[in-house]
Amino acid sequence: MPFCACTHTYMAYITNVDTGATHEVSFTGADRCKTILSGAVLRVVHRKALLEALAKELPMDTIRFSSKLTSMRTKAQKGSSIDLIQMEDGTTIRAKALIGCDGVHSVVAASCLGLTVPINSGRWAVRGLARFPQGHELNHDFQQFVTAGAKRAGFVPLNDKELYWFLTGKATWIGCCKRELWRLISVRFHCHGWSGHKSFKQRVEAIAFSFRFPWDIIFGNVSKGNIIVAGDAMHPMTPDLGQNECAALEDAVVLGQQFGELIAQRSRLVPLEVAQALTKYAQKRRWRAAGLIVTSYLSGWVQLGGSGWFMKFLRDVLYSRLLQNKALDVIHYDCGKLPCVVSPHAVN
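The structure corresponding to this sequence follows.
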């Protein structure tokens, strides 16, 4: 097969390492045919490829790299407001809106909107990207392995030559994560004959998972005047449903709907109307984002809850057999279409 930037899969196989039992999970929901036609499947893509594809849609010199925001103030202007954004290099930017997409430790969320700092979930992960120049010869299904000792490992091919893998659990055993990864999935690796491949290379990182309390998004200031947050700056969550970046793309679509309607009506953005549009965006995204945070956290909590009889019952019976497919249903979400705007250059 030719090398490609991304792949997609319809199925996940979850293997209990202690019992050897494998549970199948479909990412396509109940109506498989309809879901496949709509393109709503699990897609694995390089973050770099996604960012480059988005950046190419913008005019040249739109993006300023290595430009850190240090402060922001609002200046009244004809009954509305203009944001004056101060950058680390001394540059001042006049903007009709400030959309903070500056990650989990967002300056905009904390300093401009007063949102609470995301908390540590108590869970860590070791994850990496393995490259096989000769090809890994695996199908594109998502493989996951769980143990009663509150550990979870898995891998999914990114394409025919690259493989994303992870091992996650409670922070108390982060020091042995790398060794545990190979122990947990060595059987699968050896079955395909490439665990000792000479051309096998990988990049590894360790990371702690943080999330924002859902009630902070529901009742907090995710917008104030012409200031808003989106992506992880708004709704950091644990990665158990793989919806962090997907939710950020949903944010972008909903924001595009609000701005697109203004441009279509007036061919320009009026600061006062921009603030109203951002308020509508916040109203549309609060409950969706809060629901994703809760569902993702509980999904991970059940799977990493420990080896006691009650948690084993929750994980192996109640969640795996009855609730897992319901939890995955939240990924099937239609945030609508973007309005048709004649020319983006009409904005001033």
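The two ends are 47 Å apart (CA to CA).
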